[in-house]
Please model this.
Amino acid sequence: MKIERGFPEHQRAQVAGLFWDAFSGKLGRIMRPEPRALTFIATALSPRHAFSAQSDSGELMGAVGIKTAGGGLLTAGFSDLAGSYGTLGALWRGPLLDIMERPLTEGQILMDGLFVDARYRGLGVGSALIDAVVEEARSIGMDEVRLDVIDTNLRARALYERLGFVPTGRVNLGVFSRIFGFHHSTTMCLPVTARRDDVSRTSPIPDQST
Model:
């Protein structure tokens, strides 16, 4: 396995598929039907805001997005939404997707989605991708890596705590919980100087980070 910045253009549709598999439970009610969602995601993906895990034979094993002040994994505007869903579809989807946006604070890099192909789970792919994000944060002078995990993904939260992430806040969705299918998300942060020597490199990582 090797970790690369971005992903080859021919893997764009595959990355979009992994993203959808991981997050359709959270975003499905807004972004369905699936064919349109996949078209939109594939168009919006920004390889320069991602790391991918590649097998020795060139197979995509997984990917992780990052978000900084310079942008995130999905870089899209109203015209991109309209291109997949039409103008009316974009008009109501856009504001709902904006609810999921969380502002970054100074010194933070956001882990903007983590997803591993089912064939390669349990092999340390997720851990290697998280390490790449931590190294990226360190190299650009960030203080911490942040992620947001939803309340229905308790397995993910427990695992991130074992990796050294510490809960720092909570965001309640209120009336929008009926739309998204969860009630709140927990913000978790990992200082880039944190020691992770005691964390097993082969610990399985969940499908999604939020």
User: Anything to note?
Assistant: The mean pLDDT is 86. The beta strands are 2-5, 50-54, 60-67, 108-116, 144-150, 166-172, 184-191.
